[in-house]
TrEMBL record:
<feature type="domain" description="GST N-terminal">
    <location>
        <begin position="1"/>
        <end position="81"/>
    </location>
</feature>
<dbReference type="Pfam" id="PF13417">
    <property type="entry name" value="GST_N_3"/>
</dbReference>
<feature type="domain" description="GST C-terminal">
    <location>
        <begin position="86"/>
        <end position="210"/>
    </location>
</feature>
<dbReference type="InterPro" id="IPR004045">
    <property type="entry name" value="Glutathione_S-Trfase_N"/>
</dbReference>
<keyword id="KW-0808">Transferase</keyword>
<protein>
    <submittedName>
        <fullName>Glutathione S-transferase</fullName>
    </submittedName>
</protein>
<dbReference type="InterPro" id="IPR036249">
    <property type="entry name" value="Thioredoxin-like_sf"/>
</dbReference>
<dbReference type="InterPro" id="IPR010987">
    <property type="entry name" value="Glutathione-S-Trfase_C-like"/>
</dbReference>
<dbReference type="InterPro" id="IPR004046">
    <property type="entry name" value="GST_C"/>
</dbReference>
<dbReference type="Pfam" id="PF00043">
    <property type="entry name" value="GST_C"/>
</dbReference>
<dbReference type="InterPro" id="IPR036282">
    <property type="entry name" value="Glutathione-S-Trfase_C_sf"/>
</dbReference>
<dbReference type="InterPro" id="IPR040079">
    <property type="entry name" value="Glutathione_S-Trfase"/>
</dbReference>
<dbReference type="GO" id="GO:0016740">
    <property type="term" value="F:transferase activity"/>
</dbReference>
C-alpha cells in the first residue's frame, strides 16, 4: 500500500514534509487538499479533526505534524539521506533548530499572513508587531549561528533544513530579512538551490496568486 500524503503544494508545512520525501525519492501518493477535492478533504478531516496539514497515512497508521512525519519516514522508510542522525547529541541540536524554525520563524510569519486574511475589524495590529519583532530577533540570532556553516546543524542537510527552507522562504516574503543578515540570505539561497526544495518551490508556483500579502516577483 503506498504512502499517502494529504497536503497542498503551497503550504509551508507540507513543503517541509515534501522535502524529506524528495530527498530520498520516497514513493508516495499526493492527496491534494483543494477546493475541487471535496472527498479528499473529507477523508483528511476525519483523519485529523484539528484540520491541519500535512498528514501522512501509511497503511493503518496516521502521522500528523511535519517534524513527526520526517522522523517517521527516517524510521520506517529510510533512504540514503539520513535527516536525523543516530548520534543522540547531534540529533538533539537538529531538533532544537527544527523547533527554532517552526516556533520563531514559521509561527510569526504565519501570524502576519493570517492577519491579512481576517476581516478588517478583527485584525490584530499589536500581534503583527510582536510577530515582526520576533522575526527580526530570529533573523539576528540565525545570522550569528550561520556564520561559517553550510547547513543549520552539523555538516549535512537535515530535518532542521527541511524546516528552515519553507520558513525562510515565506518569512522573507512576509517580513523581509534585513540586508545586514548576509549569512541568512546566503543560507536561504543555498536552500533554494537544494533540488528537493527547488522542486517543492516549482510545484507551488501556480498558487502564488493565493499569497494574501501579494507574492513578490521573485523566489
Ligand atoms: N504544527 C503543524 C502545523 C501545520 C499547519 O499549521 N499547517 C497549515 C498549512 S501550512 C494548516 O493546516 N493550515 C490550515 C488552517 O490553518 O486552517 C505541523 O508542523 O505540521
Amino acid at each position: 500500500m503506498p504512502l499517502n500524503l494529504y497536503a497542498h503544494p503551497f503550504s509551508s508545512y507540507c513543503q517541509k514534509a515534501l522535502i524529506a520525501l524528495y530527498e530520498n525519492d520516497t514513493p508516495f501518493e499526493f492527496r491534494m487538499l483543494g477546493p475541487d477535492d471535496e472527498s479528499t478533504v473529507a477523508e483528511w478531516m476525519a483523519l485529523w479533526p484539528l484540520k491541519r496539514f500535512p498528514v501522512l497515512v501509511d497503511g493503518d497508521r496516521t502521522i500528523m505534524e511535519a517534524s513527526i512525519i520526517i522522523e517517521y519516514l527516517g524510521l520506517h522508510h529510510p533512504g540514503p539521506v539520513r535527516l536525523i542522525p543516530s548520534d543522540a547529541d547531534a540529533a538533539l541540536d537538529i531538533r532544537l533548530m527544527d523547533r527554532f524554525f517552526d516556533n520563531y520563524v514559521m509561527t510569526p510569519q504565519g501570524k502576519i499572513v493570517v492577519n491579512a486574511i481576517r476581516p478588517a475589524e478583527v485584525r490584530d495590529a499589536y500581534g503583527v508587531e510582536e510577530a515582526r519583532a520576533m522575526l527580526d530577533a530570529a533573523y539576528r540570532w540565525l545570522d550569528g549561528r550561520m556564520a561559517g556553516r553550510e547547513w543549520a546543524s552539523g555538516d549535512s542537510f537535515s530535518l532542521a533544513d527541511c524546516a528552515a527552507a519553507p520558513a525562510l522562504f515565506y518569512a522573507d516574503w512576509s517580513h523581509a530579512i534585513g540586508e545586514e543578515f548576509a549569512h541568512v540570505h546566503a543560507y536561504r539561497q543555498r536552500l533554494l538551490a537544494r533540488p528537493s526544495f527547488a522542486r517543492a518551490v516549482d510545484e507551488a508556483r501556480p498558487y502564488r496568486p493565493l499569497f494574501p500579502l501579494g507574492a513578490p516577483d521573485r523566489d
